[in-house]
Amino acid sequence: MKADSLLQLVAHGQSYWLDNLTRHKIANGEIERRAREEGLRGITSNPAIFYKAISGSRDYDDEIRDAFAAGRTAAEVHEAVMVNDVRDACDVLRPVYDESGGVDGYVSLEVSPHLAHDTQASIEEARRLHAAVERPNLFIKIPGTLAGLPAVEQCLFEGININITLLFSVPRYEAVAEAWLRALERRLEAGKPVAGVASVASFFLSRIDILADGLLAHRFGTAHEAQARQLLGKVAIANAKLAYQRFKRMVAGERWQKLEAAGAQAQRLLWASTSTKNPDYRDVMYVEPLIGPHTVNTLPDDTIAAFADHGLVAATLEDGVDAARQTMEALAALGIDFAQLATQLENEGVQKFIEPYDALTKLIQEKGRRLQRREGAETLPEAARLLRRQVLRMTTAAGSGHPTSCLSCAEIVAALFFHEMRWDPADPQARNVDRFVLSKGHAAPILWAALAAAGAIEEDPMSLRRIDSTLEGHPTPNNPWIKVATGSLGQGLAAANGMALANRLDGIDARVFCLLGDGECSEGSVWEAAQFASLNQLANLVAIVDVNGLGQSGPAPYGHDTAVLARRFESFGWRAIEIDGHDLDAVLDALERAREGGPTAILARTVKGRGVSFLEGAGGWHGKPVERERLQQALDEVGEVRAQPRVEPRRTGAFEAAIAGTPGSIDVNYASGAEVATREAYGHALAKLGALNPDIVALDGDVKNSTRSEFFAEAFPERFFECWIAEQNMVGAALGLAACGKIPFASTFACFLSRAYDFIRMAGHSRPRHLVFCGSHAGVSIGEDGPSQMGLEDLAMFRALGHSTVLYPCDAVSAERLTEQAMRSEGIVYLRTSRGKTPVIYGNDETFPVGGSKVLRASGDDQCTVVAAGVTVHEALAAHDTLKQQGIHVRVIDAYSVRPLDVATLVQAAGETRGLVVVEDHWADGGLGDAVARARDWLVPLRFLAVGSEPRSGTPHALLERHGISRHAIVRQVLALVNHPDAGRLRA
User: Fold this and answer.
1) 727 is catalytic
2) What letter does residue 462 receive in the DSSP assignment?
3) Under a CB-based contact definition with an 8 Å cutoff, are residues 940 and 862 in contact?
4) CB-based burial of residue 350 (10 Å sphere; 0-12 exposed, 13-18 middle, 19+ buried)?
5) pLDDT tens digit string along 28-72?
6) Catalytic residue among 153, 578, 727, 920
7) C-alpha distances in angstroms, 164 versus 131, 153, 753, 769, 913?
8) CA-wise closest residue to 879 among 869, 870, 891
9) DSSP characters for 861-878?
10) What's the CA gap between 243 and 144, in Å, rounded?
11) Nearest-CA neighbor of 588 among 453, 447, 412?
12) How far apart are CA 590 and CA 686, in angstroms?
């Protein structure tokens, strides 16, 4: 910055003051340097400036924290902060005050703008602030309102220096000057000295042009447009020049000369609001035309820099006075009443002072609370260091793992586990605590390290990835702290959704934190979950994305550009906060802001491999531990841990879990032979069960009027969650609900569950106590909708899970009873329902134990056994009747429990008949036929009827025929089996 122009202002009789007081400028010597080198003569302050300084720095944190700890109110802290800065600034500028003989070196501090229309309160506050600062070079700012004028006079009479603000018109300035004169005259009459009493009258500039230009623009398009355009940007300067003429007349008068002779100094005019708001105007337009003696110009930093760079210095204040009068006359000729304009600006000005004043008090209140809550955070850097060291040691000892992905999130994990989260390291089963979901599951070592450091686990962290350890390469519920298995990326946020829903249902005011990687944000499931969280207003959900910029094989799609992810989350209705993920203060601030409601996404820019020079930002290290010979170098770079972190057990409030178990049973009432779709019966049963058990919840993928989960939604809307066409999130959210003790029923078309199979697979590894899926519209029997809507893989999908139950009802009674069994069965249960109506064949009191089957037709003359489930049961019964007419008896078994299978009944049937025919509306691989085939080595022929070719649209009847699973196909298969040349010796 060039100082010549600024120094020349002083030579022309004008002082420039800085319109920006911050503690940082005081502490770093900037104010002192500017006063010494650049001619700075004073400083003004206001709540807006303090707000910016306090919100944008941590310079005030210690003072605010200590003041709140001492029991002071936000208003008291607000005042104390300002008083302390003003006092320190007064001390810095005291040399200017002394060498100028009390003309300059002032710092301004304003009374509360709420007192702008209260004379006595303004006087009392001015006295108090004056005494609190206790510096001769202090100005108390009082607005020049009608109520402010007598307060100004009384304070000046008492010897308090006053900066009169919010002046917009010459008449109001004249009233201010009159109050100044009267105050000094009263002092003389009272025998008090007038020397050393200072005052400035602050004329506001840019605000005048903003309003005047707007009013002039109303004349555009009229006959007066040319005149109006000529006045744009000229009114404020003209008004100021005329005010200065009034100042000159005042100081030339006899009253002032008498006071001056007694030692009084002039009340200078001060130009305020001098930054140019209109970019079309010159950036120094409120400086260059107003240079003259006995004036002050308060300038913000940008305007000071601009004037120092290209400002022109000349005695300009008395140039163009006639033109100024003509400007004001022309304004009036256009119908613009300047007196009215000034009144409006004064009223608006008071409000514009009130808003930042109140905002500052609120900011201090919030910051004080945050800082008090942040007690103990001083050990977090050590916690992050400890986590990094432990991760390096663990992964090197294991010879595998993902240390670099852990190192990037060390500050985040430290802040969560050792400060922000309310949890109890002694109770992994607690519900009334904050939860953590590690979606980027490959960073498991840092989770184990945090749990070990907190005393939550006793296992040796060095047992990472050993077969006898629960500290696995990716988190699984083998460790009691893990509620959902993660590691297949893109799944954690959906599970966190479910946990947040469970908290809401149980009235638990806890937060759910989900740590994701930037790479996994390429998964569409993340954005399914983001949409769901926003639509369901999951305010206590916090997603933290570790944006370390590197994937496994190369850079992440957007590197460290957190703005891309921020915009995406915001587009789904989230609040997004972008931070430096290695700045613990920024991390803590973001976590504190997340308490205000959400859902909130924190996008943390980090460096993969942070803390180790040869790992930081380096490619080729994903999934690789540091070699043993380089481990010590890495540990040395991370540094020694000087303080051990600790966790104080905290809960979010009282919580009493519901009593396990569901009393009673549902009533089933169907007429024999009535045509009812099993999907319909499922919906009725679900609603009945909802009345029995408040822990039952239902989710659906925008097909509730087809799956019939709509019956539950109508009865229990608070426990029903529409997931729309986003099956991955539906499954993940259901898993999260199950992890919190709910019994979720997630329903959609059977075929659409294949979209979410990775989520279903991971749910299997999560081993939830209760999690039910219902796939409707299964098989070719749905008819005309065609193959895209036909679930033909679903039995195989669910049978392939390690611990699952697969149930397939054939009529309304079995559908309701099996839905009830699903609720009572532990683990993952799959219910397969059908679109078309089927006749009721069971009595309402029939029971359907899991692992059982029903022998529907049997005799001592049975030659063959037909094993069916769902729609094919009815085809098998029809085939039985046809064959019976031909003198051939067959046994018909409803294998409603596909997994576990009723092997004993099948073995008995095989021993009593000549062979088994399995018929199913499913692909030939992986369904009921495979289940039977795997049950044992059969000593009788085993035949399969299943869908073996590409389906197409058609009627259900035509499709069953086309794919060889109809009654006629069963008849043909049975005849082929019993008429086989070796049929006579087929009995086992």
Assistant:
1) yes
2) G
3) no
4) buried
5) 999 999 999 999 999 998 888 889 999 888 899 889 888 888 889
6) 727
7) 19, 10, 72, 72, 109
8) 891
9) TEEEEEEE-THHHHHHHH
10) 15
11) 412
12) 42
